[in-house]
Amino acid sequence: MGQPTLEDFLDVAKDLKMNIVTDNGLTRHIKYAKPESCLGWFDLVTWKGCLCIHGDYGSFAFSRTEDMFRFFRSGLREDGIKINPGYWSEKCVAASTHDGVKVYSPKVLREKVLYEFNNWWEYEKGRAEARKEEYLQQIEDNLLSEEGGIRGEIEAYDRALSFEFKGFSLPDFWEYDLKEYTYRYIWSLYAIVWGIQQYDECKEEYNGRQGDSANSA
Fold first, then answer.
1. Domain of residue 116, residue span
2. Helix crossing, 153-162 with 106-124: angle to 10°?
3. C-alpha–C-alpha distance, residues 147 and 106, integer Å
């Protein structure tokens, strides 16, 4: 399924309306949803030291600092929303049972195998026992072809570690991480930062109105 871009997320989020249910210091419950539609809805819930997002794209909980809104505001930049999947995953204390934070990816397997082969070929092509095309065909047929039927991460490691063709093998392939961040996880990170942005703008507008009322009194 790949991963969503910020544009993918914003295409869904543009019609979401915010409803602040609870806003008491570090204790917040904010809902984002389309009127009369469940597409893309999510809730942000915070309490001291924790933030949970729950909605159409699953549930994730994070813990790092007392105010997790302040933590995720690091994704609000002058040039737009920027998420940090790697660092933020280290603060994820609970993940959706649908996919979780990361999942085995055939795309990553392909990238790592071809990276290893291309490095090997640069050093060994002068002594190689076959043409480059023959190596690539063997790699495709035995490791990368969808028809090969690799059914998960463990089998991918087993196939790679046992592969050998005319001098090329992958004895250290177990060192690679063959997972990528899930669609739901990336989408949820965009939702958290965007949701905080909407909240901050609403609070700023409200405080501005309060200031105007006080000045006119």
1. 103-180
2. 20
3. 12
Record the tokens describing residue 22, joined without a space: 């609870």
Q: Within 10 Å of residue 178's Cβ, how many Cβ atoms?
A: 23
| pLDDT single digits (tens) 43-62 | 999 999 999 999 999 999 99
Report whether pLDDT(147) > 70.
no
Cα-based angle 40, 180, 118 (whole degrees, multiple of 5) = 145
State whether 76 and 165 are in the same domain: no
Cβ 95 vs Cβ 181: under 8 Å: no
Do both 143 and 166 map to the same domain? yes
Q: Do 128 and 114 share a structural domain? A: yes
Which tens digit of pLDDT belongs to each residue from 170-212?
A: 999 999 999 999 999 999 999 999 999 999 999 888 676 655 5
